[in-house]
Amino acid sequence: MLTFFVVLLHASFMVEWFAVQDALPSLYDELTKVSDYGKFIGFPFKALGLFALLILFLLAATSHDYWLVFLTPSVWKGLHMALYVAYGLIVMHVALGVMQNDRNPFIPAMLASGFAIVTLLHLVVGWRERVRDRAGARGSEGWLAVGPPLSIPDKGARIVTPPDGERIAVFRDGTQIGALSNLCAHQNGPIGEGRIIDGCVTCPWHGYQYRLEDGCAPPPFTEKLVTYRVRIAHGVVEVDPRPLLPGTPAAIRYE
Amino acid sequence: MIVLLALVLYAAAGIAIAAAFLVFGVTRVLPEPAPVTLGARIMLFPGAAALWPYVLIRWLKSFR
């Protein structure tokens, strides 16, 4: 929301600059001259900023948990992925704006290298996550092996990936072990990267909490996570990848 | 100019429908009943105005 107001302030300053010079019609002409949209140098870069502003307005206007429920989490998250589109539009808005008058080759070179670095980083991380997803260890009878109990950090989790479905976060709180969906009920944050605080699994994104024993948020909150059965077989913690209903008690204690 | 006119009409419809929705329908469309305070309704206004076609469809469906 703050980003939207900053961008809105910038846009209002720009419009005021044109208005003070009685040049608003030329601004309108610049935005509506279709032939210019085929150019690189001379592209109406202000239009890119305007589209970014509209996207940020939509995101700011739906930044409330009411919309998360109204739109459903998956639709809401898809909508808010448009932030990346706005990000790209703003980068090009700035770059093309500068390049209207400054023909220094360093600027397009920096733009291209920045794009290449961000793309490369996304590909590297995506590949690493893909390898991690495929490396799930198999236990017995279709259960997934997590590791010895003490391999799970106390108050923390190890994350395992079933052949189908979302990742599972296996937490240990002292001698209690429980397995929950890795996706927070709030905005699908990675629960497994969180810690157990005040006796509850705590999402690292916004602090939503869930009891380890049944995946329920402590009263008066009502969120519930899918839970999974866990067992210890031959000294190894195993989790059944078949999900239980949200809020089903499934945690165990070991000696 | 046509685009500008369409935007103005969209915004006008959005303001009207959002105002009506936030007064009469904001709690009706929730899967579970929950109170929505006046401050929250004011905060929801821009989103309801921007998404008024979908808001209207969900509001009408809630009467079935």
Beta-strand content estimate of chain A = 15-25%
Domain count of chain A, please report it: 2
Order of helices and strands of chain B: HHH
> Measured on Cα atoms, how large is the radius of gyration of chain B?
13 Å
**What's the number of structural domains of chain B?**
1
Write down how many β-strands of chain A occur, each being a DSSP E stretch of 2 or more residues.
11
Biggest interface between protein chains, with counts per chain? A-B, 11 and 15 residues
Number of helices of chain A: 7
- Low-confidence runs of chain B: none
> Would you tell me the overall average pLDDT of chain B?
90
Strand proportion of chain B = under 5%
Average pLDDT over all residues of chain A: 88
Question: What class would the helix/strand composition of chain B place it in?
Answer: mainly alpha
Tally of alpha and pi helices of chain B = 3
Question: Which secondary-structure class do the elements of chain A indicate?
Answer: alpha+beta
CATH C-level label of the largest domain in chain A: Mainly Beta
Tell me roughly what share of residues is in helical segments of chain B: over 70%
Structure overview:
- By secondary structure, chain A is of the alpha+beta class.
- Chain A has two domains: 2-103, no CATH class; 144-253, Rieske [2Fe-2S] iron-sulphur domain (Rieske Iron-sulfur Protein).
- Chain A contains seven helices and eleven strands.
- In chain A, strands 2, 3, 4, 8 and 11 form a five-stranded antiparallel sheet that branches.
- In chain A, a hairpin with a 2-residue loop joins strand 9 and strand 10.
- In chain A, helix 1 packs across helix 3 (45-61), helix 3 (45-61) runs antiparallel to helix 6 and helix 4 (65-71) crosses helix 5 (73-80).
- The model of chain A has no long low-confidence stretch (mean pLDDT 88).
- Chain B is 73% helix and 0% strand.
- The radius of gyration of chain B is 13 Å and the shape is globular.
- The N and C termini of chain B lie far apart (39 Å).
- Classes of the chains: A alpha+beta (255), B mainly alpha (64).
- Chain A binds chain B through residues 57-58, 60-62, 64, 66-67, 69-70, 222, and chain B through 26, 29-32, 36, 40, 43-44, 46-47, 49-51, 58.
